[in-house]
Design brief:
About 85% of the residues lie in helices and about 0% in strands. It has one domain. By secondary structure, the chain is mainly α. Keywords: Membrane, Transmembrane, Transmembrane helix.
Length: about 40
């Protein structure tokens, strides 16, 4: 769980850095990660 949390946090940070702190892109990226996490958790 700890590794998974750190992994997703790293992805979010990488995404935010990649899109240049674009608010819409950041929200979209986080939403995709949440959906992916939920899908993998089931």
């Amino acid at each position: 769980l700890c590794f998974s949390c750190t992994y997703y946090l790293a992805l979010i940070i990488s995404c935010i850095d990649y899109v240049g702190l674009s608010l819409f892109s950041c929200i979209h990226c986080v939403a995709v990660l949440i959906i992916t996490f939920r899908f993998r958790a089931e």
